[in-house]
Design a protein that fits this description.
3 domains; Four Helix Bundle (Hemerythrin (Met), subunit A); Gyrase A, domain 2; 15 helices; six-stranded mixed beta sheet; alpha/beta
Length: 468
């Protein structure tokens, strides 16, 4: 990690009532002190100072008087190491939010020896100085980029109540097991049993169950700042594109009475009651009228997006009777994330009847033509999110894709260790796999930064804003 002092504007880069400039590093205090009209208080962990910033006007001759200096009223926040966000000396300068003024102040301190920070460098230093874990750093980034109250709450929960607390207990159990097995190897030439094969198999199962519990009770994918993913699906010409246009409030889809107008999928976005949605209109599939190549491609597009869906909206044509294709589509989808949308209720047929009761608890009746029921559809989506996806804001086992991949590697290595233990192979072979489990587990819970490659760190922090 660099020992130089970094500086950046921490507020949005536009004119505003207040602007904040942040410095972090060994020279942060002396650099700022050299430009103040008051002396900083000493031996304080955290202090504020109301004073003026005295900047020499650029291009002023040597020995210029006070009249040739600029006096800027500021509030200085002093945070001494290790009681700051980065665990370094940190100074925040709060002043008027004029971009011209903030740039002048920045330029002054850069000329004096500070360096403009890279994106996410303040948070990266907090991570490298053991102030926060990598998962908490990612949560900070998600808080910064959250666009709704729901996403903000998810990120805050991840920052303060994380699965690593639970996994650290599992890690200690794994360390105890490896230690006992290696001790058994040391006494292998003597008639002393430190740990039996039965105990090893039992411990491996317990560790595997613990990791599996985290995976099963956590999100199936990382929390997305893009919103809840909704997918419209159904056979051709049931009105998916019309419903799509009503929800996103702009005509993005071509609407036609000719079946199969949509061949790929189209994405749109809308917000309702502080919940953001990404909605996809997929290609309708009509097996009898499509060539095998087109059918395969349309099916491939639809399957890919359905696998990512939080909510599936199955659209049925209320002006006709239910057909075999409607039933086939319903059977393909999990009922716990599916809502039936009956369209064309303005011309509802007496022959229309929803088969069975598989989706009876999640049905909405609408008319894309007259807009009847569209508002109720939006309300149903929000209620569905609150009911079915509520674990996203209350589940303490919130993990992201990077952590999930490492935990999957743990399970794979545990499976190999279990096979070796069942065959009663030498503990040398079993511990070889268990050490791989330990390495992946450490990566998942950020317990040792030596296990985290530099390119992964750079990729994570490059997505931050400058000044964060």
């Amino acid at each position: 990690m660099d020992n130089d002092t970094i500086i950046a504007i921490s507020t949005p880069l536009s004119n505003s009532l207040k602007g904040i400039i942040r410095l972090s590093g060994k020279k942060a205090f002396p650099l700022v002190q050299s430009a103040l009209n008051k002396k900083m208080p000493a031996n304080k962990t955290w202090q504020t100072l109301d004073c003026d910033l005295c900047l020499k006007v650029p291009d002023s001759p040597a020995g210029a008087s006070n009249k040739e200096k600029c006096f800027i009223p500021i509030m200085v926040y002093l945070m001494r190491a290790p009681f700051s966000y980065t665990r370094e000396d940190v100074v925040e300068i709060h002043t008027f939010g004029s971009m011209a003024l903030l740039k002048d102040i920045m330029g002054y301190f850069i000329r004096k020896g500070a360096r403009l920070s890279q994106p996410g460098e303040f948070t990266k230093r907090a991570f490298l100085n053991n102030r926060i874990t990598l998962s908490q750093a990612e949560a900070v980034m998600e808080i910064i980029h959250s666009s709704s109250q729901r996403e903000h709450q998810l990120s805050v929960n991840k920052l303060y109540t994380h699965s690593s607390h639970y996994l650290k207990v599992t890690k200690q159990e794994l360390l105890n097991l490896i230690s006992r097995m290696e001790l058994s190897l040391d006494f292998s030439d003597q008639d002393i049993e430190i740990v039996s094969h039965r105990e090893v198999k039992k411990a491996i199962k317990q560790i595997s169950d613990s990791i599996q519990r985290v995976l099963e009770s956590s999100l199936s994918k990382p929390v997305s700042k893009e919103g809840i993913i909704c997918v419209l699906c159904g056979k051709p010409n049931v009105g998916k594109s019309s419903i799509f246009n009503r929800l996103v409030r702009e005509r993005k889809n071509i609407v036609s009475h000719i079946p199969g107008t949509t061949r790929d999928y189209i994405e749109g976005r809308f917000s309702y009651r502080d919940t953001d949605f990404r909605i996809f209109d997929t290609a309708g599939i009509e097996y009898e009228t499509m060539t095998s190549k087109i059918r395969y491609q349309a099916q491939k597009y639809t399957d890919n997006i359905l696998n990512q869906a939080d909510i599936c909206l199955v659209v049925l044509d209320g002006s006709e009777r239910i057909e075999k294709e409607d039933r086939m589509i319903q059977k393909r989808l999990p009922s716990h994330k599916t809502i039936l949308v009956v369209n064309k209720i303005d011309i509802l047929s007496s022959r229309f009847k929803i088969p069975g009761s598989r989706f009876s608890s999640a049905q909405v009746w609408v008319s894309a033509y007259t807009q009847a029921g569209i508002s109720n559809l939006k309300k149903t989506l929000v209620r569905f999110c609150e009911k079915k996806l509520s674990q996203r804001s209350s589940d303490e086992m919130i993990i992201n894709l990077r952590e999930r991949e490492n935990l999957q590697l743990c399970l794979e290595a545990l499976s190999r260790a279990k096979i070796s233990a069942n065959k009663q192979l030498s503990y040398e072979f079993v511990t070889l796999d268990l050490r791989q489990v330990l390495e992946s587990l450490v990566r998942a819970i950020d317990d040792d930064k030596h296990f985290i490659p530099e390119d992964i760190l750079n990729n994570i922090f490059s997505r931050f804003c400058i000044g964060k």
